[in-house]
Write a structure and sequence with these properties.
Number of helices: 22
Number of strands: 20
Distance between the termini: 55 Å
Strand order of the largest sheet: 5-4-3-6-7
Shape: globular
Radius of gyration: 27 Å
Oligomer: single chain
């Protein structure tokens, strides 16, 4: 009745000393240029050698530039650390993947992709996000500089055994939800101290449904809830990922031993919690720790919703971010977008981003850094045409490195600027002094980069097979419709109201308005045009009910009063139907994009309306509306 963690830990325990600490044997140690110099200096001062250099692997990543890597590093301290790492590895016979070589990259990306990281191992590195490797079924955790020296000298480390915790995520994930959303949701619910003192095993059907790289994102951020590390039991997904990789075992039964690595059915964890995958939606953070996260469409909590002891830090975080309690992030401008890091710098992340931006253009005011996690990822991105897609959309694929995850290299976010980042921490100054970080997944980052604001991604535009699972919904999300309505119908202004009565009345008028669009278009075209191509609804009681439900299920949203809704009568209904209908067609165009059919038909509609003597529009007003709509369409088409 052992947990997976207990099985691996106990198998690697060399001795238990008085007080309960364990001498734990380490199968592999990863090192980089930042935390290793002091460790090697300690060895040199004692005249010691690296005990088992074959079990140590180095890759410079933190300080390296992500442009012009063929040139000397300009920052003197970074250059010195890189030189020291290379010299120390040469002296002690340690394998190092030097900058610019085919295997270089962020060590927590390189380890798994080369097959150096394997199930059942104990792995350490002088970096807190060593927990990434736990996705392969390892006990992997970060250690301090003195412990790096300890492992170099003895291949063992002195550690207290953590408690065990299991987090189950059960059910099917919502469309557009990725592993980054899962872990941000879990941290928002459990808090940054929810896993303190524990080693977490992530389990459940939603976790098992994830790809290997998505699992790495989950385990990577397990430490952000205070855990010692995170892990996922290896399965066929793991074995398929490792098969054929350079350092993975070969042979006919190479994975036989790994298949025994799981928690026993009757295993007892010190703590266990379960979450429903249906409750998870695309996430973003609003504060200065990863636990300050919300669903994209939600509001920042009110002060009254925060525990009294946490209110000072809550308000301090909002002051730093220049946000207010109770406000929404949707529509707020974005200055920078960063895709990369050991959290989301793998090929699947780049595929999601590139698939979304394909055929569009980056917002003019956004600076975007798309940084592969390794040279291998960079090569894949080039071979698959991802670099070409990014460049066509106004983006640049940079060279591998930790980049803007932390302000230790040239990629720093300026003070006061907002950066939607796929990295793992949003602390004050993490990406640069005064930088304001909003953590999100690659899909959300892509949408923000295209629109220049925090916005809900249109997952239905995805087509790549790797991300097709994100687009399995045929329903137009209400929050997408709201954003399009706000864009196409300026008189409507999105705001929060406490008036349930107004929402109810608006739901009725909104439902009738859209439902009336079909008959109105038939009248306009004298039945010459097949209007079934115009809208994704059949006009019957069921469709009206579906539209009505969009309003009711999002009761917290409403639009400011409009004279077209106040006027009771045919003219008001017709006017609202036309305006709302065109907005909906705009949404239809953006969400569904049926080979340009909708855009062509919309042009015909505009031309037809211009020729009609509409009594409820003055010629000046009509011209203004048509001009505005046409301008919006041209702007949309330019980015599609």
């Amino acid at each position: 009745m052992k947990t997976l963690f207990d099985k691996i830990w106990d198998a690697h325990t060399v001795d238990t000393i008085a007080g309960g600490s364990c001498v734990l044997y380490i199968d592999r140690q990863y090192i980089h240029e930042v935390t290793s110099p002091q460790a090697f200096e300690g060895l040199h001062s004692r005249g010691a050698k690296v005990f088992r250099p074959a079990q140590v692997t180095a890759s410079p990543d933190h300080n390296i530039p992500t442009q012009n890597q063929h040139l000397p590093v300009q920052d003197l301290q970074s250059a010195r650390q890189l030189s020291m790492l290379e010299n120390n590895c040469t002296e002690h016979g340690i394998t190092i993947f030097k900058v610019g070589t085919p295997k270089n990259g962020i060590i927590h990306v390189v380890g798994p992709e080369t097959g150096l990281t394997q199930p059942g191992m104990t792995i350490v590195c002088g970096d807190s996000h060593t927990s990434t490797h736990g996705a392969m079924g390892c006990v992997a955790f970060g250690i301090g500089t003195s412990e790096v020296e300890m492992v170099l000298a003895s291949q063992c480390v002195l550690q207290s055994k953590p408690k065990t915790m299991r987090i189950n995520v059960e059910g099917q994930l919502n469309p557009g939800v990725c592993s980054k959303d899962i872990i941000l949701y879990l941290i928002s619910k459990l808090g940054t101290g929810g896993g303190t003192g524990h080693f977490i095993e992530f389990a459940g059907s939603a976790i098992r449904s994830l790809s290997m790289e998505a699992r790495m994102t989950i385990c990577n951020m397990s430490i952000e809830m205070g855990a010692r590390g995170g892990m996922i039991a290896p399965d066929e997904t793991t074995f398929a990922y490792l098969k054929g990789r350079e350092y993975a075992p070969q042979g006919t039964e190479w994975d036989k031993q790994w298949k025994q690595l799981y928690s026993d059915p009757d295993a007892i964890f010190d703590k266990e919690v379960t979450f429903d995958a249906a409750d998870i939606y695309p996430m973003i953070t609003y504060g200065t720790n990863p636990g300050m996260g919300i669903a994209l469409t939600h509001s920042i909590p009110e002060v009254s919703e925060i525990e009294e002891t946490s209110r000072p830090s809550f308000l301090k975080a909002l002051e730093y971010m220049d946000f207010k309690p109770g406000e929404k992030l949707l529509g707020k401008p974005v200055d920078y977008v960063f895709v990369g890091s050991c959290t989301n710098g793998r090929i699947e992340d780049l595929r999601v981003f590139a698939d979304y931006v394909k055929g569009k253009q980056k917002a003019a005011g956004v600076t975007a850094w798309i940084v592969p996690g390794s040279k291998q990822v960079e090569k894949q991105a080039i071979d698959e045409g991802i670099r070409d897609t990014l460049e066509a959309a106004g983006f640049e694929l940079r060279q591998p490195g930790c980049s803007a995850c932390l302000a230790m290299n040239d990629d720093k976010i300026p003070a006061g600027k907002y950066c939607v980042s796929t990295s793992n921490r949003n602390f004050e100054g993490r990406q640069g002094p005064g930088a304001r970080t909003l953590l999100a997944g690659p899909l959300v980052a892509a949408a923000c980069a295209i629109h220049g604001i925090i916005t809900v991604p249109d997952s239905l535009q995805l087509s790549n097979s790797a991300t097709q699972q994100l687009s399995n919904s045929a329903t137009l999300p209400m929050h997408d419709l709201i954003l399009i309505l706000k864009r196409f119908i300026p008189p409507y202004k999105l705001r929060v109201t406490k008036s349930i009565i107004f929402n109810f009345l608006h739901a009725i008028f909104g439902s009738l308005s859209i439902a009336m669009l079909g008959p109105i278009l038939k009248i306009i075209f004298n039945n010459e045009q097949d209007v079934t191509e115009l809208v994704p609804f059949e006009f019957n009681s069921e469709s009206i009910g579906q539209i009505f439900n969009y309003y009711i299920t999002t009761i917290k949203y409403t639009y400011g009063p409009s004279t077209t809704l106040i006027l009771i009568g045919v003219v008001a209904i017709v006017t609202t139907a036309l305006k709302t209908g065109f907005a909906y067609l705009g949404a239809y165009e953006l969400i569904y994009i049926r080979n340009g059919v909708v855009r062509d038909i919309r042009r015909k509609i505009y031309a037809k309306i211009l020729s009609l003597p509409l009594p409820f529009f003055s010629e000046e007003r009509k011209g203004d509306i048509i001009a505005r709509m046409t301008g919006d369409v041209q702007e949309v088409e330019a980015s599609v």
